[in-house]
Fold UvrABC system protein A.
Amino acid sequence: MEEADFDEEQLFDNQTETALKGQSDISGVSVVTQSPIGRSRTSPPASYIGIFDHIRGIFAHLQSSKEQGFTVGDFSFNSTGGCSECQGEGSIQKETRGYVFTWTCHVCGGLRYQRNVLDIKLNGKNIAEVLEMSVTEAIDFFAQETRISEPLHLLEKIGMGYLRLGQPATTISGGEAQRIKFAKALGRSRSGGILYILDEPTSGLSCADAERLMDVLRSLVDHGNSVLIIEHDLSVLKACDWIIELGPNGGEEGGRVIAEGSPAELMRQPNSIIGTYF
């Protein structure tokens, strides 16, 4: 399931037999999954978080672009400005006897654009070079463009400063895709009352980046939101207000609530398995 939102009426049906308390404090839910971003394998993070249109617009309004008659579409690698040989993918694939062979496009050299488009420079960088920037590098490059820098700051806050703006979707892991979606959800103008649901959000993160992500989650809670996570990392579980532990094993031998409470309370419950590790 993609990152999705639900309003209060959809979430809380009064005709259900399940007792539910506290729903009046929740105005909506944002479910952030690990499914791929974008609709195609070439969809970059810059498109998903909504900054690529702004970047292309800046390039299109340069005087050198106007002199060449370029439009916003010419700075999209899957539109008029893309390499005609590889259709803006930067590589060519061929299937032979069940095997798929991939090699860098010999026309654009993997840059995905037509050569005349790459002649247009913004502060010394062409559009392909901008897409090769990491999130952290792009924050400095677009420091005066808040529509671009603010979404990038959110990505950096959750440990994604290394991500390249034009990185193909096929090279982005499920955990990375989830955090990109989470950054997009954070950028929406909502003040409190949102229940965020995430599946193992610290997967693949270093200890330092995981702690940065936890700081963001704590900030969400401090601003009147709630966070529900599925997680196995003990450092994350220790930071939770309430834990529902399922077990006692996996598969058919699991799925039952064997303990619940705060980390301190789980330490005192004989049925808890994770409580013994706190």
